[in-house]
Design the sequence.
DNA sequence: CCGATGAAACATGTTTGACAGGTGGCCATG
DNA sequence: CATGGCCACCTGTCAAACATGTTTCATCGG
């Protein structure tokens, strides 16, 4: 009704407007990770809204991983965090909006490309880390819980070698929601033959990347996704929804 | 110092615990999109915490896109929304955690795979929509603002033909943060030669997908990303950070 | 002069109570 | 049976207050 006193705040809920204000502030002032943002009361006075509303906004931004708010400390800009993306996917899966196979479909192509880019962008240290992670896979049988962790470490090492934060984030995020169902599936139903195949495939992946052979790396990762994992998928062992 | 009085509520903030409670509720009760969740006061009484805390949690979940809360209405489970992902990427870009080229690197591979999967999973209607979207690209010059919209529509049509919500969501989300910088870039610096090339490439994409030729589709999309766009990228015209 | 100590200032965490306004269903009246 | 109004319930917002954790800085003792 009135537009003469408060010029900015009008259409949506106050919280949403405060959130937009803060995001705008971050963009405008070119704030980086670790920088502080104004305190709740400051913003509350600045925008002439109650502290409760501002609190809601801060907590919302903290939930999406933008801000880090802790008691006593000044709120700071937080680093991009794969867990919020992972929660997003996990939630989508929990509400049956996506299923495990669809996640695999996306993961396959992203990890294939990650392997390719790792052959191009990876430093020698990156490749060494990948090789070490690959070696550690021989230390445990597939049924061992530790093996899953080593497998995870290998794929993460590949993702890091890409030197593109998006790949690191998304690969971590897409892996998390499948972790437990994978553990169960692999623990229960893997035959000796499949186990040997899986280990051999991982060796191929490591070797291809370390030789900076993009084509072979891509192919190896593709097979890694196609052969054993999708077999489990089709058996219905890996099931997330 | 003391650990004898409060047994349950201790480590995290109450808000976080309420959020976890709600997410757990959604998972446990197998709630789907559109279902209602308990009201703020109900949860507040249920968990014996103040309504303000519960409100913060509800708003946080609304910001993440999980819940839809409106005055008077009961809070409901919301459909997965690409805008929250887009905001995530936009925020990462705004805080210089990622740059435009890294987004393109991810987009290229995802959209390539989308084209491949579209040839496999797309229905005849899907392909018809893709063809129509492709035709409309000839109606405007590249410099026209409407052309960008048609280009967007084409890529979205391809994403939809995959029949995997993750592809729809991520392609939409990755495109949004680049939209404006692309608009400027294309408007200002595209030569006639490049323009013809771009349009021809789009025709190739449409034709390949409609012929269900996965290899050609993938190749066409790859070139679409490699040739004109990366040229703009290298010139520094498209710049997001 | 320097460093440690303590308190004040400031930050978030949480509660209570209150009121306004929107939404939807129930019920009585026509 | 239809329709209006009414009421119960919901979110949106504010204000004041207290608890607790962190930072800062001045003061005091060496």
Sequence:
């Amino acid at each position: 009704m009135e537009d003469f006193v408060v010029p900015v705040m009008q259409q949506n809920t106050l919280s949403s407007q405060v959130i937009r204000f803060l995001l705008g502030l971050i963009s405008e002032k070119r704030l980086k990770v670790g920088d502080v943002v104004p305190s709740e009361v400051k913003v509350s006075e600045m925008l002439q809204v109650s502290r409760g509303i501002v609190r809601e906004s801060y907590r919302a931004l903290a939930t999406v991983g933008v801000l880090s708010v802790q008691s006593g400390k000044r709120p700071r800009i937080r680093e991009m965090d794969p867990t919020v993306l992972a929660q997003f996917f996990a939630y989508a899966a929990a509400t049956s909006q996506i299923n495990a196979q669809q996640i695999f479909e996306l993961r396959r192509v992203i990890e294939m490309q990650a392997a390719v880019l790792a052959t191009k962008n990876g430093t020698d240290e990156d490749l060494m880390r990948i090789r070490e992670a690959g070696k550690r896979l021989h230390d445990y049988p597939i049924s061992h819980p530790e093996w899953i962790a080593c497998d995870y470490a290998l794929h993460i090492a590949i993702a890091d070698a890409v030197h593109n934060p998006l790949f690191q984030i998304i690969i971590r995020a897409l892996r998390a929601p499948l972790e437990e169902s994978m553990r169960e599936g692999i623990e229960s139903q893997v035959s000796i033959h499949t186990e040997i195949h899986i280990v051999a495939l991982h060796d191929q992946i490591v070797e291809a990347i370390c030789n900076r052979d993009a084509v072979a790396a891509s192919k190896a990762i593709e097979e890694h996704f196609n052969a054993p994992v999708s077999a489990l998928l089709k058996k219905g062992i890996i099931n997330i929804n």
Observations:
- Confidence is low (pLDDT under 50) at residues 1-11 of chain A.
- Chain A touches chain B through 50 residues (CB under 8 Å).
- Strands of chain A lie at 67-68, 76-77.
- Residues 39-41, 55, 58, 69-75 of chain A lie near DNA strand C (CB under 10 Å from a C1').
